[in-house]
Amino acid sequence: MSAAPARSRRAALRVASAFGAAALATALLTACGSGTGTTSDRAATDGKPVSLTFWGWAKGTKDVVAAFNASHPGIQVSYEEIPSGNAGGYAKISNAVKAGNAPDVFNVEYPQLPDFVSQGAVKDISKLVGADLKAKYLPQAVDLTTLGGATWALPLDAAPQAFYYRKDLFDKAGITVPKTWDDFRTAAQKLKQADPNTRIATFFPDDPSTFEAMSWQSGAHWFATSGDSWKVDLAGAETRKAADYWQKMIDDDLVRVQTSFSQQWTASLQKGETAGYLGASWGGGVLKSTLPDAAGKWAVAPMPSWDGSPASGMLGGTTFAVSKDSRKAEAAVEFATWATTTPEGIKARIASGTSSAYPADPALVPVAEKAFDTAFYGGQDIYGVYVAAAGSIRPDWAWGPVMGATNTALKDSFGKLAAKSGTLAQAVDAAQQSTLAELKNRGLKVAG
């Protein structure tokens, strides 16, 4: 079995077997070898520090690297900030992997991790991640970094959904914080009636992750496996329920359709023309750094749900992965472990004031809460909202191995919404077909 095809085949099988065919993947892995390559990265240093290269973009990362380097003379990390994943970072990483000059460790969000695994771009770090370490993290985060029974990354944060809103604008319109999506629509109507220029939130046509989180919250399961085959259900009843709801919100001009985090979106928030933001735990830092003049006006609430009971998906969330060709996996995992499970790592990330990350290690939530200045939110216990939301993340969600193709199809279709030349229902249908086609193009089996 030649090395390159073997790696590609092993990677595909690991992902395809993420939930139901681990035994098959294990048998093939045993035949081909696991290739973790971790025995020499600490021993052959001749007394010199191990030098790691690291690429990422999350807020506060530069401070994390500086703190690690100061406290770990035996390992020194060289950090390069790259564009966020969907803004070009993932393409840069993929190209570097293909060229053989990838960093030792890089950040990748949960939705894209299976894609990188299926491409053979990341290293199986199972032998370096013991049960005690995995037990530190939220089970949902461990599930999303475990494919085919193997560990492919360490989770940095969870990203439960949250609703950010302008207290003053809600009070002026006589609106109570919505608990259900029906309440949310009613609140949107009241806001528009109180001020025809004001909308309750924004639908981001360029970023499918918010809609994906809404589908997750609705109880959808986009990906699963049957034996060694993938099952894809992007257009199921739960997803269509979410799609129909947001389509009507758009058609009735109750939400804006604007590019995520754009100048247009920011200006709308600054002017009070958009009174809410449907985000995640990390959004607390985004608003604080984006709208410094609005301190005291914003608050955080649980995401509305269909029946008013707590329910959340995850909107993003970041992991640390080791690139396939790194010969320093042991040191890379040591760095990632420190960054994700120590008070010092979380403090360094959050102390800059721009990050409100919710740690994947629940024991560090009090550390994060203490490190983040909540004056922008009037001193509200925003981490209390995040804790409750994290506890309500629906289980058994899985990301597919071709999310690049899935998201491209969604973005292409979402781009037609503003011109009213397409619908969300058409978008999920198009994404279903594009996903199935890409799975087959990569030689992955599809059930049904």
What's the gyration radius in Å? Answer: 22 Å
Q: Which sheet architecture does the biggest sheet show?
A: 5 strands, mixed
Strand order within the widest beta sheet: 2-1-3-15-6
Strand content: 5-15%
Describe the structure.
Keywords: Cell membrane, Lipoprotein, Membrane, Palmitate, Signal. Residues 1-27 form the signal peptide. InterPro entries: Bact_solute-bd_prot1, SBP. This is ABC transporter substrate-binding protein. The chain is of the alpha+beta class and 448 residues long. Helix content is 43%, strand content 14%. The chain contains 19 helices and 16 strands. The chain has helices spanning 3-16, 22-32, 61-71, 89-99, 113-118, 131-134, 139-145, 167-172, 181-194, 209-217, 237-251, 263-270, 283-290, 329-341, 343-350, 365-371, 382-391, 403-414, 424-441, and strands at 50-56, 75-81, 105-109, 146-147, 150-151, 154-155, 157-158, 161-166, 202-203, 223-226, 229-232, 256-257, 276-280, 298-301, 318-322, 358-359. It has a five-stranded mixed β-sheet. A hairpin with a 2-residue loop joins strand 10 (223-226) and strand 11. Helix 14 (329-341) packs across helix 15 (343-350). The longest helix is centred in the last third of the chain and has 18 residues, at 424-441. The chain is globular, with a radius of gyration of 22 Å. It starts with a helix and ends in a 7-residue tail after the last helix.
